[in-house]
Amino acid sequence: MCGWWAESAMMTSGGRCSADCSQEGIDVRDVAVDGSNVTGVAMIMVDAAGQNCIAAVYGANMACDDEQLDAAKRAMESADALMLQLRRRRTVSIAAASTCSQSWGARSVGPGTVRSDAKTGYAVADVITPNETEAAELTGIRVVDVDSARAAADALLAMGVGTAVVKMGQHGVFAATASERYYVPPFGVDAVDSVAAGDAFGAGLTVALSEARGLEDALRFASAAGALAVTKPGAQDAMPFRQEADALLHATNA
User: Fold this and answer.
1) Which residues form the Carbohydrate kinase PfkB domain (predicted)?
2) Which end of the chain is least crowded, N or C, by CB within 10 Å?
3) Whole-prediction pTM value?
């Protein structure tokens, strides 16, 4: 069972998004409605190679506060994993991760937009998943290959992160803990649109870790989900189903 904790506005896009998620079996009871804000929106430009540039207005998401966090604790207390993207107030995201520290087996935090005060919150996360740009902003290390990704991951561990996962898009992913180091190469797919690839990766990683899979296995499952997402245009419509990720893994291992 998957739940969505967010805030939307009283407008068509917010209602449609909640309805679409509900149809997919996602619990949307903790999506609050804010009549004084617009629903968050991202304007995404995609080039001929499928790479994207995103300009976002977070809208109602930034209205999420401690009161809404308290209301969402019902779902959080019974959950196996928490996935945060920091597209709401940083203090609320950190409080959510801290609240779940005693009862959750895995907490996955993707940096999303990096802000000047973001570094102080990552020690509460079990896992963070920055892409090359985010990793560079957080660590000062320009990520261009596996060696530089390894250096960035080590720097993130030194900041107090338990597991650092540096995503390199078409070049794969590198992950590190205090005792493990893994590089997972990319899956060979025909890229159409890279929008939401990171979201699909984060979702796959969170699911796999909540199932107590080993880190390397979880990375492969997450990479399969991310790879499938780039084969379709759009964001929500590009999210792969679990059986699709399993099929890609099976075909690759065959």
Assistant:
1) 18-240
2) C
3) 0.82
